[in-house]
Design a protein that fits this description.
By secondary structure, this protein is of the alpha/beta class. The chain has 12 helices and 10 strands. The strands form 2 sheets. The chain has an 8-stranded parallel beta sheet with strand order 3-2-4-9-8-5-6-7, sandwiched between helices. Strands 1-10 form a two-stranded antiparallel sheet. Strand 8 (266-270), helix 9 (288-301) and strand 9 form a beta-alpha-beta unit.
């Protein structure tokens, strides 16, 4: 039995004139694959869409789902260099042989047929979200294919070829909006940080596993911005073993006061779930509980919100967490038993019968908590005193 509880909008009169939350998706996402062994699996996107549909989350009166549309090449040049864009086109056609030039080659960033089309499509979806939110047609817009936050202006990095969060942020800046970027992926959001490291119009906040223990090796607490942007880059590196309790304590110490002081017009978030306890590429120990707390906070506090996907290399975690995220964005509570129709068709890919994780406590909680307190004290001294609403 599928149970969707409608927690708000008790009458059709309340819905009249209300903004619809936007979910951007395309069946074409599943057409692209990095290679047979690459940890970034596109089926996680299709499965998330299917689970949301099975729960009835696209049938709500305050929801709109639109088809993702590829962006134009010109939009990529707002951040990426022309030479790099040309390389991506050649690589997609199998005509580029410069292994490891511009970050391309066997390993993290393989060259595969359709690389160019994939880049245009997932970036286009993020720009659709930014346009709808920026122009006031939606308060919340979610692109699960986005959040590829490691790409730099002239090179691929960390499974990312085009940095769609940066391009979405630029679109919002061009509309005169002040942006808070919140990244909760296990890997530091380096590409976004460096793009806006000197720009106080963007407050970047990244919670991630300590760079001394995980790619890309950046995101130390002392990276706080430069020049006019000093104090507007915020990093919370977490020790391996950090669990929901420690993470949420750190979040509550830093994000609410920063948000209150900065007063952004819009939040752009990267909702990676490679922070979860059983993710194969990282060593944090979060669950759906800590993740959903962040989503609930943003659903309540963000003035408007462009939500993007991100990492997550245990498909089950991605599918369950992003379905929960979409339900929270729309004020709905879902039954914890994953519906039988979904399990009968896709259960082998998910492998879990419950939507939410069991409570989990890390054996390293005390050590991780000490480190979190050190980080938050540093930020309270060096960041919270600098950030203003006039940034």
């Amino acid at each position: 039995m599928i149970m969707v509880f409608h927690d708000r909008h008790s009458s059709s009169d309340q819905l009249e004139g209300a903004l619809k939350n936007l979910f951007v998706f395309s069946d074409e996402f599943d057409r692209f694959q990095y290679d047979g062994t690459h940890p970034l699996r596109m089926e996680r996107l299709t499965l998330t869409h299917e689970l949301c549909k099975t729960y009835g989350l696209f049938d709500l009166p305050d929801v709109q789902m639109i088809r993702a549309e590829a962006t134009q090449e010109e939009s990529l040049l707002r951040f990426h260099t022309p030479a790099y864009v040309e390389v991506l086109k050649l690589a997609s056609r199998g005509e580029f042989k410069g292994y490891y030039t511009h970050g391309l080659g066997p390993g993290d960033n393989p060259m595969f047929a359709g690389l160019w089309e994939w880049s245009l499509l997932h970036t286009g979806a993020s720009l659709q979200c930014a346009r709808e939110v920026g122009e006031g047609r939606s308060r919340i817009a979610f692109n699960i294919s986005g959040g590829l936050h490691h790409a730099h202006a002239d090179r691929a990095s960390g499974f990312c070829y085009i940095n769609d969060p940066v391009l979405a942020i630029y679109h919002l800046l061009d509309r005169g909006m002040k942006v808070m970027y919140l990244d909760i992926d296990a890997h530091h959001g380096d590409g976004v940080q460096w793009a806006f490291y000197e720009d106080p119009r963007v407050l970047t906040i990244s919670f991630h596993q300590d760079g001394r223990t995980l790619f890309p090796g950046t995101g130390d607490v002392v990276e706080t911005g430069r020049g006019p942007g000093l104090g507007y880059s915020v990093n919370i590196p977490m020790l391996p073993g950090t669990d929901d309790t420690v993470f949420w304590d750190g979040f509550c110490s830093i994000v609410p006061p920063l948000m209150e002081k900065y007063r952004p017009d819009v939040v752009v978030s990267q909702l990676g779930v490679d922070t979860f306890v059983d993710d194969p590429l990282a060593s944090l120990e979060l669950t759906t509980s800590g993740f959903c707390r962040v989503v609930s906070f943003l659903a309540e506090k963000a003035p408007s919100w462009v939500a993007l996907g991100g990492g997550g290399y245990a498909v089950s975690n991605v599918v369950r967490a992003w379905t929960l995220a979409w339900s929270i964005m729309n004020g709905r509570t879902l039954d914890d038993d994953i519906p039988a129709p979904f399990l009968s068709g896709f259960g082998a890919h998910v492998g879990k019968l419950k939507l939410r994780d069991k409570e989990h406590a890390s054996d390293r909680r005390e050590e991780c908590a000490r480190r979190m307190r050190e980080v938050t004290r540093y930020l309270e001294k060096h960041v919270l005193t600098r950030v203003t609403c006039n940034g």
